[in-house]
Amino acid sequence: MNKKKLTYIEECGLMFEQLGLARMVGRVFGYLLICDEDAVSFDQIREVLSASKGSISSTTKQLVQIGFIETVSLPGDRKTYFKVTDIELGKMLSQRMNFFEKFAEVLSKGRNLKNREDEVSDWLRDAAVFYSWVGEEIEQMIQKWHHEKENIIKQKE
Amino acid sequence: MNKKKLTYIEECGLMFEQLGLARMVGRVFGYLLICDEDAVSFDQIREVLSASKGSISSTTKQLVQIGFIETVSLPGDRKTYFKVTDIELGKMLSQRMNFFEKFAEVLSKGRNLKNREDEVSDWLRDAAVFYSWVGEEIEQMIQKWHHEKENIIKQKE
DNA sequence: CATTAAGTTCAATTTGTTTTGAACTTAATA
DNA sequence: TATTAAGTTCAAAACAAATTGAACTTAATG
C-alpha cells in the first residue's frame, strides 16, 4: 500500500472519530473505499493496517452491524472477504441526525425543572422548538434528496 | 440541589458528549440552565458538581471560549460569577455542522486515489455531492430559521 | 476423524483522557 | 506592604478506551 493511501486511511479514521465512531472503524472503511479490489480478505486488512486479529475481528463486526460493509464468501475458499455496502446516503445521514429530537426533549425538560421564569426559560423554549424543527427539516431535506438526487448530482459534478 | 436537577445535569453531560464535547462541559452548562439564579459563583458550581477547583477552572474557561457562558463580576466582590449566554441558535448549529464540507472533500479525495473506476467510485462521487449539498441546505435552513423563527415558535409551542 | 486454516473471545496490557490537589499567581483589603 | 481570598496551572493519579495475543471454537480438507 503506498504512502498516500495510508495517509488517506488515517484521514478516514479521524473523520469517523468526528462521527463518534472508533478510529479503527474509519480506517477499515477507508481502506475498503480505495482498495481497487472487489473485496478484501480479513488478513489483507490486518496486514495493511498493521493491527491484531482481535482488533480486525471486532472492527469488521461492528462495520457489518452498522451496515457499512458486508462479507463476501467464495466456494472452495474458507476466507471471509469484505466490501463496502452500497449505503443509502439519506439513511446514513438520518441515523446520525436523530439526536435532534432528543436534544429538543432535554431542553424542554430543563425548562420544566426551573422554579422561575426568566431569560433562560425563554431561551430553553426557543432552543427546544429550534431543534425539533431542525429534526423535521432534515427529514424533509432527505426526502428532497431522494426525489432530486439525479438532478443534484448532474448539477454539482 | 435536588435529585431531579442533579439527574438533569448528568443528562446534559451525556448530551454534550454526543456533540463531541467533554461531559463536564455539559454538566456545568446544564446546571447554569436550571439554577434559578441570575449568575452562579465558581465555588457554587464546584460544590454542586462535587469537582475540584482545577476541573471547574478549565471547564468554565472552555465554555466561555466557545461562547456558551459568560462571566459576571460585581464591584466589591472578588468572586467570578457565570451565566449562560443568550446563544444564537443558528450559529450554535452551523458551528457543529461545518464538517459536512470536510466530509465531501475526504470522499472526493478517496475517489481520486483509486486506480480504477468501479461501483465504489460512483458511490464516492455521489456521497461527496451529497455531503456538499447537505452543507449548503443546512445553511439555507438556518437562514430560513432567522427569517421565520417567530412564526415557527408560535406554531410549535 | 485428525489436522489445519480462519476467526473469535477475553483477560491483560497499552494508550489516551479526565480529574485531582498542591503550589503558584493575582489583585483586593486591612 | 502584609495578608488573604479567588482562581490558575500542571504534574501525578485515577479512570476509561483501544489493542494485543494466546487460548479457544468452528468448519473445511486430507
List keywords for this structure.
homodimer; DNA-binding; 7 helices; 157 residues; three-stranded antiparallel sheet
Helix count of chain A? Answer: 7
| Assembly type | homodimer
Helical percent range of chain A? over 70%
Structural class determined from secondary elements of chain A: mainly alpha
The first-to-last residue Cα distance of chain A is: 29 Å
**What overall geometry of chain A do the principal axes of the alpha carbons give?**
elongated
Characterization of the model:
Two copies of one chain form a homodimer. With 157 residues, the first copy, chain A, is mainly alpha-helical. Helices cover 70% and strands 10% of the residues of chain A. The first copy, chain A, is built from seven helices and three strands. Chain A has helices at 3-18, 23-34, 42-48, 53-65, 89-97, 99-113, 119-156, and strands at residues 40-41, 69-74, 77-84. A three-stranded antiparallel sheet of chain A has the order 1-3-2. In chain A, a hairpin with a 2-residue loop joins strand 2 (69-74) and strand 3. In chain A, helix 1 (3-18) packs across helix 2. The longest helix of chain A has 38 residues, at 119-156. The relative contact order of chain A is 0.08. Chains A and B meet through helix 1, helix 2, helix 6 and helix 7 of A and helix 1, helix 2, helix 6 and helix 7 of B. The structure holds a DNA duplex (30 and 30 nucleotides).
Give the gist of this structure.
Two copies of one chain form a homodimer. With 157 residues, chain A is mostly helical. The first copy, chain A, has helices at residues 3-18, 23-34, 42-48, 53-65, 89-97, 99-113, 119-156, and strands spanning 40-41, 69-74, 77-84.
